[in-house]
Amino acid sequence: MFVLDHAPATVSPAPRPRRLTRRAVGRRLVPYLYLAPALILLVVWTYQPLVQAVQLSTYSWNLLPTAPMRPVGTANYTRLLTLPDFWAALGRTATLILGLLPCTVVLPVLLALAARRVRGRARTIYQALVFAPFLVAPVAAAAVWRWLLHPGTGFVDQLTGSGRNWVYDSATAQGVIVVITGWQLLGFAVLVVWAGLAGINGDYRAAARVDGATPGQIRRWITLPLLSPTLLFLVLTTVLLTPTLSFPLIDAMTQGGPARATTNIYYLLWDYAFHSFDAGLGAAAGVLLFVGFGILAAVLVRLSDKVAVHDD
After folding, report:
1. E strands in the chain
2. What is the reported pTM?
3. How far apart are CA 258 and CA 296, in angstroms?
4. Within a 10 A sphere around the Cβ of 60, how many other Cβ atoms?
5. Residue pair 267/256 in contact by the 8 Å Cβ criterion
6. DSSP string for residues in 33-87
7. Cα-based angle 260, 104, 232 (whole degrees, multiple of 5)
8. What is the pLDDT of residues 149-185, one digit of tens each?
């Protein structure tokens, strides 16, 4: 008869959850403390005004502190969508953006590629001259350009001899705003393209030269495809920022005229709020503008991500 003697199995106690020490908790909170000032400013200066704009768009108010705010629901939106000025301003905004794309995408690429052939101190001077217009205040630029385009005594009129009032002619006023805005944004766009070119690995060009590719073929089949995320970023900034950046020029030079020829959607919502004193209608235009450009930005960002993944 055999007796099996089994030793009793020892059950190890369940591990106790570790308690975070004060030092560990402090380390975890450090990143959030660094982000807190930016988040606070973002909430105070962006999200809070956005919420207030949405609320204001449902009221009828003339901006007077003593005047009552009368709730109207979605009537401001309905009225806005039936106004011909709103759709005309949208069309002029699209014309402004399309007119600026050559100045913010095509021309910067050409100037950035040309800068590769400039060496030494001349390259520094070249870069400074290209970037200098971006540092000029829009109001100062508007004053200088009004003097240059003045009929009769302006430099442009003396050069062309046309005698045309470029700023106050409805046929040319929009083109003047496009040219001046593009002139100011050119330096920023070239700087972005330079950064994009610097991020392209030189091994691609070296390998292409070994295979016998010409400089033109390298630019066409290697440089430009690898630069496509940068170009999409420039398109995105052009769509989102140029109507805003053109506002000081329009206000200083044309005040939306002549005959509303330069009134884009940003200037129109400002006109509704501070010229017509219809705060609810101006807020409704701002909300629709935010939603529309937000959707457009999301599409462009999505497209940029796909292009970046494809290039990788």
Report:
1. 59-60, 70-71
2. 0.81
3. 29
4. 17
5. yes
6. HHHHHHHHHHIIIIIHHHHHHHHHTTEE--S-TTS--EE-TTHHHHHHHT-HHHH
7. 115
8. 888 777 887 787 777 788 888 888 999 999 999 998 9
